[in-house]
TrEMBL record:
Enzyme Commission number: 5.3.1.1
Gene3D superfamilies in UniProt: Aldolase class I
CDD domains linked to this entry: TIM
Species this protein is from: Asticcacaulis endophyticus
One record GO biological process: glycerol catabolic process
GO molecular function, one term: triose-phosphate isomerase activity
Underlying gene: tpiA
Binding site for substrate: 10-12, 171, 209, 230-231
Pathway field: Carbohydrate degradation; glycolysis; D-glyceraldehyde 3-phosphate from glycerone phosphate: step 1/1; Carbohydrate biosynthesis; gluconeogenesis
Protein name: Triosephosphate isomerase
UniProtKB keywords: Cytoplasm, Gluconeogenesis, Glycolysis, Isomerase
Record has Isomerase as a keyword: yes
Family: Belongs to the triosephosphate isomerase family.
Subunit and interaction comment: Homodimer.
Length: 254
């Protein structure tokens, strides 16, 4: 069974209205690609980007986080329904910059995932170990716990994606080795199929220092269904090179 490769760009806290030109250039430069493409701009650009790309754009937009409640007195937060209203179809959850920077626990990520699917968004849930945890031989234990506790039962039968992002590979230029990625993906596939059944095969992405010059190698690895790209998604020229180096489809392994 095959699925379209998903290349997702996380702009993090980068981008002003003037950056919409990059989004337009990404759309124009990938109009003939069947690779699934997603961009996660900051909240401030979501609606403007949706308008700039138009209602029939092949670029899927997503929020970088959402609150777990539908609405209420949560200053500074954004609900899943508000993301949808602004043009999002997806939402990033459990990114390590939130798990570590904002001390978000797995249980909170699970509540957010529940709110996301309830609103009709596809969650892209991130998991990954720190360098210390890897050195201590805890990678499998950490990934298993994050997957077990961050993925609610509400995801059963819903479209969602998981990205393996070793924390030490994010923004460092130090991409994980092929063996490390293959090993982590085998574990992630096993935990997800134990939890949701063999039939269920979400997109599994790799994230962490994916660049135009290493994307093709990562994306050809067994079971890698796409990439979550940070820094190299900010410039259309770089992001397009990654999109064009991706296989159009990949095998879904059980
Ligand atoms: O969400 C994206 C990841 O954090 C990867 O970021 P990076 O490509 O800048 O290393």
């Amino acid at each position: 069974m095959t699925s379209h490769t998903l290349i997702a760009g996380n702009w993090k806290m980068n981008g002003l209205l003037s950056s919409l030109d990059e989004a337009r250039a990404i759309a124009e430069g990938s109009s003939d690609s069947v690779v699934k493409i997603a961009v996660f701009p900051p909240f401030t650009l979501l609606h403007a980007m949706s308008e700039a790309l138009g209602p029939d754009s092949h670029i899927l937009l997503g929020g970088q986080d959402c609150h777990h409640e539908d609405n209420g007195a949560y200053t500074g937060d954004v609900s899943a329904a508000q993301l949808l209203d602004a043009g999002a179809r997806m939402v990033l959850l459990g990114h390590s910059e939130r798990r570590h920077g904002h001390k978000e626990a797995c249980e909170l990520v699970a509540l957010k995932a529940r709110a996301a699917v309830k609103a009709g968004l596809e969650p892209l849930i991130c998991v990954g170990e720190t360098l210390e945890q890897r050195k201590e031989g805890l990678t499998h234990a950490v990934l298993s716990k994050q997957l077990r506790d961050s993925l609610p039962d509400d995801l059963i039968g819903k479209a969602f994606h998981v990205s393996y992002e070793p924390v030490w590979a994010i923004g460092t230029g130090m991409i994980a080795t092929d063996d490390q990625i293959i090993d982590a993906f085998a574990l992630i596939r096993r935990v997800i199929s134990e939890r949701f059944g063999d039939e269920f095969k979400p997109h599994l992405l790799y994230g962490g220092s994916v660049k135009p010059d290493n994307a093709a190698e990562v994306l050809r690895l067994e079971g890698v269904g796409g990439a979550l790209v940070g820094g190299a998604s900010l410039k259309a020229a770089d992001f397009l090179k990654i999109i064009h180096s991706a296989p159009l489809v990949h095998e879904l392994k059980s």
